[in-house]
Specification:
This protein is mainly α and about 230 residues long. The chain has one domain. Helix content is about 75%, strand content about 5%. The chain has six helices and three strands. Strands 1-3-2 form a three-stranded mixed β-sheet, with helices on one face. Helix 1 runs antiparallel to helix 6, helix 3 crosses helix 6 and helix 4 runs antiparallel to helix 5. It is elongated and about 65 Å long. The two termini are about 20 Å apart. The relative contact order is 0.16.
């Protein structure tokens, strides 16, 4: 399959180009705005506390995690994990990232439907991403189209997860921008930096969704061609 010209030109190259572009956008935006101090002179922890009080998220715990851009919200223990690259660094980028993770915390608090749907898809998505492609291959090698279609269904769960992730992440960024604006934590100029960082991060999810969707469509076309 990997030597199929259709796969190379219509799946591999487009997804590689989009992924590299998304990574470049993220690194470019982050590198620029992580070096720009915010006017308030506060890091991610202080930013989080102000937003949590404003939005009513005082129940959320704040933890620290190693690495760069490893910040995330964990719904299991209702905590945001802030990375070494944001804690202790009073930058515009640190504010944007922290506010985004609190966007997920608020989604969890209000029972956001798409967040809940994404959580429900996790087991099937993990199974589909790890097993689906092998079932497709097995069905094609054994000339069993029905088995290959089972692989497509399995992989489809992983695709569905990436697609559902898009509105979840877009909404978290929308909430983050509102928090920072309503609390007055950022100036008009700093808000441009917040937009740049969060919009660049969103592009990585778009790239992942596009990659998985194109791969799924390729499998469908491959099996349909064999069936004919």
């Amino acid at each position: 399959m990997f030597f199929d010209p259709n796969y190379i030109f219509f799946v591999m190259l487009p997804t590689l180009a989009l992924s590299l572009f998304a990574q470049w956008r993220v690194k470019s935006a982050y590198n620029k705005w992580s070096r720009v101090p915010n006017q308030r002179g506060i890091d991610s922890v202080e930013t989080a506390r102000i937003i949590m009080q404003h939005v009513g998220l005082e129940h959320v715990e704040i933890d620290r995690v190693r690495g760069q851009l490893t910040d995330h919200y964990d719904p299991r223990d209702k905590s945001i994990h802030l990375s070494d690259s944001t804690v202790g660094h009073p930058s515009v980028a640190a504010m944007a990232i922290t506010a985004h993770e609190l966007g997920h915390a608020e989604q969890d608090k209000v029972g956001n439907a798409m967040l809940n749907l994404r959580a429900s898809l996790v087991p099937a998505a993990n199974l589909g991403s790890n097993l689906g492609i092998w079932v497709v291959f097995g069905g094609l090698m054994l000339n069993l189209p029905s088995l290959a279609w089972v692989g497509v269904l399995l992989f489809g769960a992983a695709v569905a997860f990436t697609l559902v992730t898009l509105p979840v992440e877009f909404d978290a960024s929308r909430r983050a921008k509102r928090y920072l604006r309503d609390t007055g934590l950022v100036t008009a100029q700093e808000h441009k930096g917040v937009d740049a960082v969060l919009d660049a991060a969103a592009l990585t999810y778009v790239a992942a969704a596009a990659s998985s969707l194109l791969t799924l469509l390729y499998y469908v076309s491959l099996i349909s061609g064999r069936s004919d």
